[in-house]
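Hi there,

I know you've been waiting on this one. I reran it after we fixed the sequence typo, so this is the corrected version. Both the input and the resulting structure follow.
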Amino acid sequence: MELIDAPQTGITVVGQDIPGLPQNNIIIKAWNLLKADFPALPPVHFYLLKNIPAGAGLGAGSANGAYALMALDDKFELGLTQQQLMDYALQLGSDCPFFILNKPSLAKGRGEVFSDLGTNLANYKIVIVNPGIHISTPWAFGQIKPRPAAANLATAIVQPVTEWKKLIHNDFEAVVFEAHPEIKEIKESLYDAGAIFSLMSGSGSTVFGLFEKNKNIIYAGRNNYFLKIIDL
């Protein structure tokens, strides 16, 4: 395939719809960030296959931005270190640096201070269920009232997975479940199917369940929900 020069920077998205104008896409913002510091960076036309829905709590947009930074660094040999990439990523969003690191980590600060967890989930598989409900992240954060944590996450996460149900919680669940009871039903149905641990992902609306790898899963949720099983 012959590569041709792009006349101007832009993006073509196929698959899931992305709300907003193309020029406001986080991938274009990533290009703009690097262009400011590397004036010789040429125009690029990006092609994005969007499989993960927006507002799903899976960090899809944040991952797109982070990987755009890494792709541009690699393609145009900018010579950025991992830390420099993470610094740029933080300007795109608080959870973007995680996708530069891309391994199980405990994040503090704005999401840019990491410590290695060493978590091994090789004996498990994860079931991801998305009901197709868009949850606005700003709305979800606006509903949260800061309070002391019920448990120390750094201590809880290194406990056996069988203990996580008692120790690890997502504060967004209370407000999201009240607004959308069907998301709470997903979590309950995953436990009914034999999940060892289940939690809403981020600010929702996706819910995941951890199952033993050899577990035969019979999920009794609604048929129109997106469901994916991933071996870890």
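Quick highlight: The first helix runs from residue 26 to 37.

Best,
R. S.
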